[in-house]
Structures are given as C-alpha cells and as structure tokens.
Predict the 3D structure of the following.
Amino acid sequence: MTALNGKTVLVSGATSGLGKSLALQLAQAGCRLALCGRNPEKLNVLVAELALPVDRLLARAFDLTDHSAAAKFSEEAIRKFGKVDILVNNAGANLAKERIESIDLKAFAAMLDLNCTAQLALTQPIWKSMTTAGGGRIVNVVSSAALFANTSIGSYTAAKGAFQALTGVMRREGRAHSIHVSAVYPGGIDTPFRAQARPDYLKPETVAEAIIGLLRLPADAAVHELVLRPPIEDNFA
Ligand SMILES: NC(=O)c1ccc[n+]([C@@H]2O[C@H](COP(=O)([O-])OP(=O)(O)OC[C@H]3O[C@@H](n4cnc5c(N)ncnc54)[C@H](OP(=O)(O)O)[C@@H]3O)[C@@H](O)[C@H]2O)c1
C-alpha cells in the first residue's frame, strides 16, 4: 500500500461535492493540500473545517476558465511545497442542458473550456514539474456521461468526451515520465452539481474513498480507468 501521509495533493473544485470530500479525506490521510474553487466564501468554510497548519495548506479561489490564473495556482503550489505528487482534476459543471437544435454555441464552448481546456491549463505546470521530479499521479474526474450518449446534455457529454480523449493521450505521454494517469467515470453523485437532492445516487464520500483507494495502490498497478455507478443506473451495455 502506498502511504499518502506527507504527499502533496492538488485538488480542483474543492469547495463542494466530490472535491470537498476528497479534501477532507486527504487531510485525514496526512496530505499537504493545494485546494482551489471558485467561490471564496465556500473556500473559507472548507479552510476552517480543515483547520490545517499553514505549511500543509494552500487555498485559492478563482475561476478556472481564467487559464493564466489556473496555471499560476499550480506554479504557486509547486513553489510552496517543492512539488505536487498527485493532481486531481475534479472541477466541472453541466450548465448547458439543451437538445442538439437548441444548443447555444457560446455555452457549448464554455462547457468545453471548463470541463477540458481549463483542466489542461491547470495541469501543464504540474506536468512539467512531475517530468523533472521523476513522476507523479494524475486523476481526471470525467463522467459516465462520456461513456453513454444521454440525450439533452450534448455540451457536457462532448466536453467530458474531449477530456476523456485528452486523458488517454496524457496516459500514453506520461508513461515515459512515470506519470500515472487515471480517468474516473462516476455515474450520478448526490452533490450540489444538480439542484435537486438525489439520495439514490452515489455519495461524494464514497467516490472520494474509491479515488483515494486507487491512489493507495502500490506502484506496480497503474489504474487506467475506474467506473462507478449507483445501482439505480442502467446506462451501460
Ligand atoms: N454530481 C454528479 O452526478 C457527477 C457525475 C459524474 C461526474 N461528475 C463530475 O464530478 C466533478 C465534481 O462534481 P460535483 O458533483 O462534486 O459537483 P459540485 O458539487 O457542483 O462541485 C463542483 C466544483 O467545481 C468547481 N467549479 C465549477 N465551475 C468552476 C469554475 N468556473 N472555476 C472554478 N471552479 C469551478 C465548484 O466551485 P464553486 O463551488 O466554488 O463554484 C465546485 O468546487 C465534476 O467534474 C463533475 O463533472 C459529477
């Protein structure tokens, strides 16, 4: 088992849902955390809840689609902690739910940006640093939406599909540098991601536990893909 104690982990989208559960569980595991979200009030609540010493925490609120802010945050994390051992690209949203004929092209581009391009902007400085540090782990939170063509969410599905494809290239390019890249495909998770509560969906704590479980695996196993669905879902072949 790989010990997570003392590892530096950067989690995006840490102010809510899955990212917040990850932050809380990783803190319990003894990690040093670089956390970002968009909403400063929510970030302050998380920071208070974590109650970590300053040498174990960096927390910043910014919009991830500001690519230079995203890259600066990664650079700041590397400066503060020396390196980032594990990056979890978790931030994301599904804000354009139309059928094909009604998809607004600007909203489509915004979904592609948040759910894929912005992840790349955050990753690039860490990628460079991992190549010189001798490797690292990257977990990209995709979605089961990339595995099944649900109707009415074309923008989100296309954006997560692009992120899935980018993840595949990262995995292959990372291999030469000992950067292990995992794609996680959750089905529905009961988080503020959607307005209505869904107690029949996955709990964010459970998905966080699964991600941490794969991070704890010994180095002889590189987990390429992890698919988790709540038993209620049947959107699979
Ligand atoms: N919930 C589901 O059913 C489900 C299923 C499959 C995959 N996923 C994926 O799982 C990941 C986590 O989602 P979740 O369910 O935990 O949703 P959530 O509770 O809504 O959390 C999303 C996180 O992303 C951040 N975020 C959103 N837009 C941002 C922006 N423009 N700039 C910076 N940060 C931004 C949010 O920050 P603020 O809160 O500070 O705005 C929040 O921390 C996402 O990638 C999502 O696509 C979710």
